[in-house]
Write a structure and sequence with these properties.
Layout (H helix, E strand, L loop, with lengths): L4 E5 L1 E5 L3 E5 L2 H9 L4 E5 L8 H7 L2 E4 L24 H17 L3 E4 L1 H9 L3 E3 L19 H4 L4 E5 L4 H6 L3 E4 L6 E4 L4 E6 L5 E6 L8 E2 L13 H26 L1
Parallel strand pairs: 1-4, 1-5, 5-6, 6-13
Antiparallel strand pairs: 2-3, 7-10, 8-9, 8-11, 11-12, 12-13
Helix pairs in contact: 3-4
Length: 258
């Protein structure tokens, strides 16, 4: 069968202070191609450009990527402070209803970093503005200096629930991951199950309870060397398999209705 079209949520940027663009990291696009076996489609983070139903019809699944702007705290009932950093309200307006719609119908989603946080907020969860300010927590932010290899290097272990979905999917209960985030889960949303933690207790892997489809999200950045990394490869491969199954299921529905 043909490769499934996988929507990769973009982020807004400005070039030369006045030219607005939407961009997605090549690491995410390569991960879709090389580790998921899909065809990436960059999705501008602006709900004014299309209807969510049409967007879902064009894609087999979605990757909710990382990004510098954070989910606006109004989305989880708190006031914005300087510690929350920058925001992208258009992305909030697009992804939160998109996540809920996909989960309800079983359309595959994979959340990464900000995407992990978006999935939690979409189901009523809240976020800490800065993990490193909490007692007993480590600094999970990207190192400010160094090469990409140094910034995306493995930095801490993740422990999954015994025989839980991440344990089964990745083939290990403990894995090494990178760490490039400032915010993190404060309270899990309704049906959000935290299935993996960093050594300091920070939630790092979640899924949506009783969802009919693939709903895994991670706080680290598995797109780095996704095709070779022993943790990233099975995660993206399982997501790709879910997207292919979604295509087959949709085709069967069309055949039955013909």
């Amino acid at each position: 069968m043909s490769r499934p079209v996988i929507g990769v949520i973009a982020n807004a940027h400005t070039i030369n202070d006045d030219y607005h663009v939407q961009a997605a990291g090549e690491l995410n696009l390569q991960a879709v191609c090389e580790a998921s076996g899909g065809m990436p489609l960059i999705i501008p983070a602006n709900p004014d450009l299309y209807d969510i139903a049409d967007l879902r019809a064009a894609c087999s699944g979605f990757i909710f990527t990382g990004g510098r702007p954070n989910v606006h705290p109004e989305e989880y009932g708190e006031e914005a402070t300087a510690a929350h950093g920058a925001f992208d309200r258009n992305r909030d307006r697009l992804v939160l209803p998109l996540i809920r719609a996909c989960v309800a119908d079983g359309q595959p989603i994979l959340g990464i970093c900000r995407g992990f946080q978006e999935v939690n907020v979409a189901f009523g969860g809240s976020l800490y503005p800065e993990i490193r300010d909490l007692p007993g927590r480590n600094n999970h932010r990207m190192p400010p200096d160094g090469t990409l290899e140094e910034k995306f290097a493995m930095r801490h272990e993740i422990t999954f629930g015994v025989d839980g979905p991440f344990h089964r999917m990745l083939g290990a209960q403990r894995v090494m991951t990178n760490s490039l985030h400032g915010q993190g889960i404060k309270a899990p949303g309704d049906r959000i199950v935290v299935d993996g933690h960093a050594p300091d207790g920070t939630p790092e892997a979640i899924f949506v309870k009783d969802a009919p489809g693939f709903t895994y999200s991670v706080q680290w950045h598995p797109e780095w060397q996704a095709a070779e990394d022993p943790v990233s490869r099975p995660l993206f491969a399982a997501f790709g398999d879910a997207c292919r199954a979604w295509v087959v299921g949709r085709q069967n529905v069309l055949l039955r209705s013909a």
